[in-house]
Amino acid sequence: MSELPVGLWGYLILLAMALVFHEPWRWLGVFLGRDLDVNSPLFAWVRAVATALIAALIMRLTLFPAGALGQIPVGVRVAAFAVGLAVFYWRRSLAPGVAAGALTLVAGALVIGT
Length: 114
Hints:
Elements: H1 6-32, H2 41-63, H3 74-91, H4 94-112
Helix pairs in contact: 3-4
């Protein structure tokens, strides 16, 4: 049997640990959630909380970014958010909205020179 490179063992151990610690919880969730009604008031509340958390994260990244995103002027970040939101509602699809917002952010950063 050939030996693996030294650095590869760490990745294999990390992968094995991720599977051992993640998969049982995933399968337990599948087992316990098989009879849940996705139209119940509980699920409506969970969707509302998840949506609020995502909205808060997007606003935080737009208005109070950390790292390299903080170097881009707030006007460019707000414009990218607005373009992404407009494309999302126009196409009714998440991927084009995210792509349009990201492209607007990159283009604005290049034009400004940051």
